[in-house]
Amino acid sequence: MSDKSSADILNRRKFLGAVGLAGAGAALGAKPAMAEGVKPDPLITEIQDWNRYLGDGVDKKPYGVPSKFEKNVIRRDVSWLTASPESSVNFTPLHELDGIITPSGLCFERHHSGVADINPAEHRLMINGLVDKPLVFTMDDIKRMPRMNKVYFLECAANSGMEWRGAQLNGCQFTHGMVHNVMYTGVSLKTLLDEAGLKPNAKWLMLEGADAAAMNRSLPIEKALNDCMLAFAMNGEALRPEQGYPLRAVIPGWEGNLWVKWIRRIEVGDQPWQTREETSKYTDLLADGRSRKHTFVMDAKSVVTNPSPQAPLKHKGRNVLSGLAWSGRGTVKRVDVSMDGGRNWQTARIDGPVFDKSLVRFYVDFDWNGQELMIQSRAMDSTGYVQPTKDELRKVRGVNSIYHNNGIQTWLVRSGGETENVEIG
Amino acid sequence: MSRSVKLAAVALLCGVALAVANSRIEAQQIAAQAAAKTSSKLGLGRPALPDEIKAWDTAVRPDGKGLPPGKGTVKQGDVLFQAQCASCHGEFGEGAGRWPVLAGGAGTLKADRPDKTIGSFWPDLSTAFDYIKRAMPYGNARSLSDDDVYALTAYLLSMNDIVKDENFELNDRNFTSIKMPNAAAFYDDDRETAEKQFWKKDPCMKDCRSAPKVTGRAISVDVTPDSKSGPKVD
């Protein structure tokens, strides 16, 4: 590491000052410097095809797709992670995205028995158990209820789970890409439960999917009545099949497994069901051999998406550091960034909307002279929680808890701009 | 509503009463809006029929709620398991390839590489019944009878040495008497107390640590896609 402190690197004023001087110098002797050895750009001096011939008409793509030049912007999977692609996961290409909304087609997928293929006209939602009147709803019924629109992140409990023992996968798509953030349209879970009428001893719900895994999870009634939804739309259109079309649970701030897709049944009970997904899975084994269960909330977390291993630095001089931060406990209040492995920190600039339990986008505009960097980000949320280091987490939890790894990520930027996933000590 | 209309009509006839009538209309409208808000029922959906609830509600709880009538022995379960389950889970639940291991691993939970199986880890037997009935066999879910599920659950108990007798019969009456070895080792999320040090007022900003050294590199592990081996995530 260079001796230059992170505060210096990040000092935008100083940098702008330097640019100002260089700019003034260039202006004085600009002409000869420009002329020497620089040929006119044929992309400018020659007429290009797209500047001469007709492009596609409006009748060509009734449903548009990204430019062919964006073909690298795709979900990716890691085949060795699981025994079967139908009970597996893929990853959102975080390093290719900006802002806070994840395009629907790039939202990571996690299925336990593949993507259920359901005609919405044939979908039913049942509410039974400790209710005054067990009910069956059609999608038409649900679309006649008062609606709400909310932006929330959904993070898999296992996001970064492969990194508990050390740096494993080289890219934020793989280390942090089990997260997405979209706008949901749907109805509040409370509206639905009110239709059936809760009995006084109703304490827990069980949410169950219509897929071949019939995924089921227990949900405390306080959370259900607070801010949960059943959504039928994401980012303005119907849910994608892989995201639960025609109906999914939205459980803000809580681990993704609870967001039951293709939801077909809600049972009301007085205690949790201790289903497979809250006993065998989604329990956190600690070093003493005991396990935490019902670790619902996703703690404050962040990651620098650019630069990152799949998006190395390409230029010296001016650069944009970009990243994402989120917290299941509330809003992101602040994100700090370090360029020297956590020795010194500077507060990043959050730009764009800051919603409750949603991703936020942060930036640091910085000058890079080719020195080695150890880049980290550290999120703070509205409850005062500060994202811990991985070592701090391991001290409490050991290395076998699989889920809920929100430790600070380090990227090593080498002098050529190549960027690596590293652990530091 | 109709009363408001009437009042409006009266108001039109009697110009002098107009102001008074208007304020009464407003009051009525406010009352009507409030009534609409407090009425919790939208009147949507229809009653679920008993047969419909029976068809979908197969959930089983640790206290036995939801267990259907039925029975099955370890021996019967063995036959079923070899036919329906062993191709993925192995003859003795040891797991073929990367498919889940169902048996063994007792006493490994504090080990560096714990072996979390039904016997070594699962707190409740009901979970096995519920899960097999709703989701197994993988790719042909909901194809087993209740007696099949009892028999398979009995065989899993036997493979995990929780029952020793191959003639043991598991049924809806003795089900909740079975205690799982790791049942007591789970506790509710305690992060807000056990990890309260992560809530900090002013995290360090300057000279927070000594010069960091790289201690691990993903490129040394080399398991980013196309590699064949690596850590496992559930």
From TrEMBL, chain A:
Q: Which cofactor does it need?
A: Mo-molybdopterin
Every copy of the Oxidoreductase molybdopterin-binding domain together lies at 112-274
Broad enzyme group: oxidoreductase
Residue limits of the Moybdenum cofactor oxidoreductase dimerisation domain?
294-409
Coiled coil (UniProt feature): none
Q: Which GO terms describe its biological process?
A: sulfur compound metabolic process
Task: Return the InterPro entries for the record.
Answer: Ig_E-set, MoCF_OxRdtse_dimer, Mopterin_OxRdtase_euk, OxRdtase_Mopterin-bd_dom, OxRdtase_Mopterin-bd_sf, Sulfite_DH_SoxC, TAT_signal, TAT_signal_bac_arc
Report the domain of life of the source organism: Bacteria
Arranged from A to Z, the UniProt key words for this protein are: Metal-binding, Molybdenum, Oxidoreductase
Provide the E.C. number(s) assigned to this enzyme: 1.8.2.1
Checking PROSITE patterns in the record gives: TAT
Query: Care to name a GO molecular-function term for this sequence?
Result: molybdopterin cofactor binding
Question: What protein name applies here?
Answer: Sulfite dehydrogenase
Please name the source species.
Afipia massiliensis
UniProtKB/TrEMBL annotation, chain B:
SUPFAM superfamilies the UniProt entry points to: Cytochrome c
- Secretion signal, residue range per the UniProt entry: 1-19
| InterPro entries reported for this sequence | Cyt_c-like_dom, Cyt_c-like_dom_sf, Cytochrome_c-type_DH
Span of domain Cytochrome c: 72-160
Q: Which UniProt keywords apply?
A: Heme, Iron, Metal-binding, Signal
Q: Highest taxon of the source?
A: Bacteria
Q: Where are the transmembrane segments?
A: none
Q: What are the recorded GO MF terms, alphabetically? A: electron transfer activity; heme binding; metal ion binding
Name of the protein: Cytochrome c
Species this protein is from: Afipia massiliensis
User: Which lineage ranks, top first, belong to the organism behind this chain?
Assistant: Bacteria, Pseudomonadati, Pseudomonadota, Alphaproteobacteria, Hyphomicrobiales
